[in-house]
Write a structure and sequence with these properties.
This protein is an alpha/beta fold and about 350 residues long. It has 12 helices and 13 strands. Bound molecules: nicotinamide-adenine-dinucleotide (NAD) and 2'deoxy-thymidine-5'-diphospho-alpha-D-glucose (DAU).
C-alpha cells in the first residue's frame, strides 16, 4: 500500500495522471492536492471522484505551513508534482505568479518531503520513497532547423514560464545532491488531448472553429512543436516513477514535429468533416496575429533514453490522436461551455465543500 500525493491533479495533464493511478493502483491511496486556479477543474475527474482510493484536498503549494502540516498528517511516500502555472502568454504578463507557484511552491514540497523522510547527506538515500517532478522541454530553450533536445542539452530558458520551470528543476536536483532526496525529473514536449484548457493553441482553435471565430496564429505560424497525446505522457510518468533510478532525468516526446500552421490546417480539415462543412471552409478562419514576445522557434525531443532504458513509446499517431481529441471536445460540449462561461468554478462548492 502506497500513499501517493499528486499535485495539480485537477489540471489538464494531472487529471489524466490521477485517472491512470487511481484505476491502476487500487491498493494505493491517492491524494490530489490542487489550488483550483482558473486552470484547475474538478469536472475533469467526475468519473473517478468517488473511488475509495481517491481523495481531493484543496490547497496552495505556496503556503509552506499548510504543506508541512499536510505532509506530517498524511506521511506520503510518493510525490508526483505537476502543479504549476503553465501558460507562456500568462507568464509574460505576470511573471511573479510563476516564480511563486513554480519555484517557491516546488521548494516548499521538497522541504516537506525532506522533513518527513528524514533525508540528509549523512544517511543512505531512502529507496522506498520518490519525489517525481514533472517538467517541460521548454527549459532547453529553442532549436534551429536541426537537432533534438537530449537529457544533456544545457538549460537555456527564454520565457518567464520556462525560466521558472528551469529554476524548479535546478532546486529538485540540488535536493538530490545536497540532502539525498530521492528525486526523478522528466521533461516533456507539448501535450494535447481531452481536458486541455482552451487558452492553449489546439483546444482554443477547436473551440473557435466550432463557433466560427478567427484562429489566431502568432507570427507566420512557422514555429515547430513536438506533440504528444496526454495519455501517453501519463503512461510515461507511470513508467518513470516505477523504474527510474533516483537522481535521473528522462525526456518524453512523440517524435512528432509540426509547424503551428500545419497543425491548424490539419485541425481545420478534420473539423470540416466532423461538422459537415464544405472542404476548406474552416481554413478561412485562420488569422495571423502579432507574434509572442521571445517566441521559441522549435522544440523537438529525443526520447531514446526513455524508449531504450524503460521501454516506453507513444501509442498514437498524431492524426489519430487529433481526431480523437476533436471527437472528445464535440462529445463534451457541456465541459467546454462550462469552462468558457466560468461555471466550472462552482463545481467544488457544489460537490466537495459539503462533504
Ligand atoms: P494546467 O495549467 O492545466 O494545470 C495546472 C494545475 O495546477 C491546475 O489544476 C491548477 O489549479 C494547479 N495549481 C496551480 N497553481 C497551484 C498552486 N499554487 N497550488 C496548488 N495547485 C496549483 O497545467 P498542465 O498543462 O496540466 O501541466 C501540468 C504540469 O506539466 C506543469 O508542471 C507543466 O509545467 C508540465 N508540462 C506541461 C506540458 C503541456 O504541454 N501542457 C508539457 C510538459 C510539461
Ligand atoms: O513544450 C511544452 C510546453 O507546451 C509546456 O511546458 C507548456 O505548459 C504548454 O503550455 C506548451 O507551451 P506552448 O507555448 O508551446 O503551448 P501553446 O499551446 O501556448 O502554444 C503552442 C504554439 O502555438 C506556440 O508556438 C505558440 C502558438 N500559439 C499559441 C496560441 C495560444 C499561436 O500561434 N496562437 C495562439 O493563440
Amino acid at each position: 500500500m502506497k500513499k501517493i500525493l499528486i499535485t495539480g491533479g485537477a489540471g489538464f495533464i494531472g487529471s489524466h495522471v490521477v485517472r491512470l493511478f487511481t484505476t491502476k493502483y487500487t491498493n494505493s491511496q491517492i491524494v490530489n492536492l490542487d489550488k483550483l486556479t482558473y486552470a484547475g477543474n474538478l469536472e475533469n475527474l467526475k468519473d473517478i471522484e468517488t473511488l475509495p482510493n481517491y481523495r481531493f484536498v484543496k490547497g496552495d503549494i505556496v503556503d509552506a505551513t499548510f504543506i508541512n502540516d499536510l505532509f506530517q498528517a498524511e506521511q506520503f511516500d510518493t510525490v508526483v508534482h505537476l502543479a504549476a502555472e503553465s501558460h507562456v502568454d500568462r507568464s509574460i504578463s505576470n511573471p511573479l505568479e510563476f516564480v511563486n507557484t513554480n519555484v517557491i511552491g516546488t521548494v516548499n514540497l521538497l522541504n516537506a518531503a525532506k522533513s518527513i523522510w528524514g533525508c540528509s547527506k549523512d544517511k543512505p538515500l531512502p529507496t522506498d520513497k520518490r519525489f517525481y517532478h514533472v517538467s517541460t522541454d521548454e527549459v532547453y530553450g529553442t532549436l534551429g532547423e536541426t537537432g533534438l533536445f537530449t537529457e544533456a542539452t544545457p538549460y537555456d530558458p527564454h520565457s518567464p514560464y520556462s525560466a521558472s520551470k528551469a529554476a524548479s528543476d535546478h532546486f529538485v536536483r540540488a535536493y538530490y545532491d545536497t540532502y539525498n532526496l530521492p528525486v526523478v525529473i522528466s521533461n516533456c514536449s507539448n501535450n494535447y488531448g481531452p481536458n486541455h484548457f482552451p487558452e492553449k493553441l489546439i483546444p482554443l482553435c477547436i473551440h473557435n472553429i466550432k463557433n466560427n471565430k478567427p484562429l489566431p496564429i502568432y507570427g507566420k505560424g512557422e514555429n515547430v512543436r513536438d506533440w504528444l497525446y496526454v495519455v501517453d505522457h501519463a503512461r510515461a510518468i507511470d513508467v518513470i516513477l516505477n523504474k527510474a533510478t533516483p537522481g535521473s532525468t528522462y525526456n518524453i516526446g512523440g517524435h512528432n514535429e509540426w509547424t503551428n500552421i500545419d497543425v491548424i490546417r490539419l485541425l481545420c480539415r478534420i473539423m470540416d468533416k466532423k461538422l459537415n462543412r464544405p472542404d476548406g471552409s474552416n481554413e478561412k478562419l485562420i488569422t495571423f496575429v502579432k507574434d509572442r514576445a521571445g517566441h521559441d522557434l522549435r522544440y523537438a525531443i529525443d526520447s531514446t533514453k526513455l524508449q531504450n532504458e524503460l521501454g516506453w513509446k507513444p501509442s498514437l499517431q498524431f492524426e489519430e490522436g487529433l481526431e480523437k481529441t476533436v471527437d472528445w471536445y464535440l462529445a463534451n460540449e457541456e465541459w467546454l461551455n462550462r469552462v468558457t462561461s466560468g461555471d466550472y468554478k462552482n463545481y467544488y462548492e457544489a460537490q466537495y465543500a459539503k462533504r
